[in-house]
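Propose amino acids for all 479 sites.
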């Protein structure tokens, strides 16, 4: 079966592509940029179509022999106009899929049973209706909170539980929801392929329990062996709630606003027998959390919501700039001869950030992260998805990986922190005569006078931080 997956580099899309490929299906992945999409986790050959569904698709075409197309595009993090962006994506998607032999569209939506819906859930419902206006039969699977390693809800709850022994929370922690394990979501998506009984139908999918957000926080703590106390106050406004989530967790402020808006709405499934028809054993919330931590400990996290460009402040077009600008830029270049083990130095570069830290001045890096949060940036809390491996497009603290070319020993990062300009940090190991040389380059392209003042004010810090970092990278175990 030939299956097309939109949003293939998203949290759900990456995992779904891997599972369907393992089942022997032919996979075509739609991504905004081929340069930030890796197929390492997908067994077998994969066809990749580069398309921005929010833009002009007149020069794009889908393979004609598609059997099923998954619509997994969500734009909740794209600011105030995300509803219009999602409807634009639907229109362009239907235009492209209508030229194929596609027999079924499968859409992962949200649970929309409450009498009053949030903007996020209203947009999901509008997308459903737009998809059904096309000629291809549509199957809609409606899910609430998705629990799995790297999911936004999992990482936000993890931040809250692991960092706050006592939580002063808004009243929405008493809102009820029906969380579902990511493993079950993928099983439902794969199980409804060409299932004719599911054509032009919608199904709510959720786990076996209805829980409040407070119960989810406490159960998460229990799985982690932590004792937590939650105090609910009625005076926390939606704006304050959004700031609370933004400063404590790794979420962006725009996403926090939309999450708080949705958290005021009960998200409970209508009963159906789809799980029995597909022979799916639903995992409890605690089982889903425990399984997620098994994946984290085994470094088997395939995808994370933080790696999506929509979770950042950056222009997605920046991923194409694999060469750092030269003109109008300030540069700090450090060079060191590698006397020790070159591969060990390379691995230290590939392990930078996250729990490993930045090898020198970590307190200053954390302070810079707090300053970034205070000014509406992403801060340091995003960390990294894997401890020792990096791919183009990954989030890395407040950086975005532009190039991760281990064969050519080059790592290029683009800053997503709030800056009066644009910044890059590059590590390159070169062969110089008979010795290897590590070149570490910080580049800053200022915007106006403020950008120039920023660079000069940071020079004393750069001197210590960048010197300390390159020296620490060269400290290897000589053999």
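Proposal:
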């Amino acid at each position: 079966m030939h299956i097309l997956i939109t949003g293939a580099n998203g949290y759900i899309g990456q995992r779904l592509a891997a599972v369907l490929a393992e089942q022997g299906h032919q996979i075509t992945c739609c991504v905004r940029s081929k340069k930030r999409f890796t197929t390492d986790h997908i067994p077998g050959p994969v066809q990749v179509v580069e398309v921005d569904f929010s833009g002009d698709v007149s020069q794009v075409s889908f393979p004609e022999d598609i059997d099923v197309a998954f619509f997994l595009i969500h734009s909740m993090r794209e600011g105030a106009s995300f509803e219009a962006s999602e409807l634009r994506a639907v229109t362009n998607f239907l235009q492209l899929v209508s030229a194929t032999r596609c027999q079924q569209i499968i859409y992962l939506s949200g649970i929309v049973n409450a009498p009053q819906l949030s903007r996020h859930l209203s947009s999901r419902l509008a997308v459903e209706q737009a998809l059904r206006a096309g000629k291809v039969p549509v199957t809609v699977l409606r899910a609430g909170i998705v629990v799995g390693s790297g999911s936004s809800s999992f990482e936000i709850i993890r931040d809250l539980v692991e960092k706050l022994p006592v939580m002063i929370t808004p009243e929405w922690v008493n809102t009820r929801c029906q969380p579902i394990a990511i493993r079950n979501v993928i099983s439902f998506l794969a199980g409804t392929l060409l299932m004719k009984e599911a054509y032009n139908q919608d199904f709510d999918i959720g786990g076996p329990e209805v829980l409040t957000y407070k119960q989810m926080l406490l159960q998460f703590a229990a799985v982690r062996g932590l004792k937590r106390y939650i105090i609910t106050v009625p005076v926390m406004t939606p704006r304050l709630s959004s700031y609370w989530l933004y400063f404590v967790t790794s979420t962006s402020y725009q996403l926090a606003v939309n999450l708080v808006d949705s958290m005021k709405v009960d998200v409970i499934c209508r009963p159906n027998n789809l799980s029995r028809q597909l022979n799916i054993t639903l995992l409890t919330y605690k089982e889903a959390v425990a399984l997620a931590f098994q994946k984290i400990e085994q470094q088997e996290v395939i995808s994370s919501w933080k790696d999506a460009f929509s979770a950042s402040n950056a222009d997605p077009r920046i991923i194409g700039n694999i060469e750092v600008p030269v003109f109008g830029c300030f540069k700090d270049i450090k060079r060191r001869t590698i006397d020790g083990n070159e591969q060990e130095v390379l691995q230290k570069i590939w392990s930078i950030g996250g729990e490993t830290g930045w090898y020198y001045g970590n307190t200053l890096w954390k302070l810079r992260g707090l300053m970034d949060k205070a000014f509406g940036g992403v801060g340091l809390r995003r960390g990294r998805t894997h401890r020792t491996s990096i791919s183009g497009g990954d989030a890395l603290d407040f950086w975005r990986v532009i190039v991760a070319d281990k064969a050519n020993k080059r790592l290029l990062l683009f800053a997503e922190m709030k800056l009066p300009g644009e910044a890059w940090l590059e590590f390159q190991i070169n062969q110089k005569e008979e010795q290897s040389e590590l070149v570490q380059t910080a580049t800053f392209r200022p915007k106006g006078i403020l950008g120039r003042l920023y660079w000069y004010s940071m020079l004393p810090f750069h001197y210590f931080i960048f010197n300390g970092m390159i020296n620490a990278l060269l400290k290897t175990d000589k053999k």
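Residues 63 and 166 are 54 Å apart (CA to CA). The first helix runs from residue 11 to 22.
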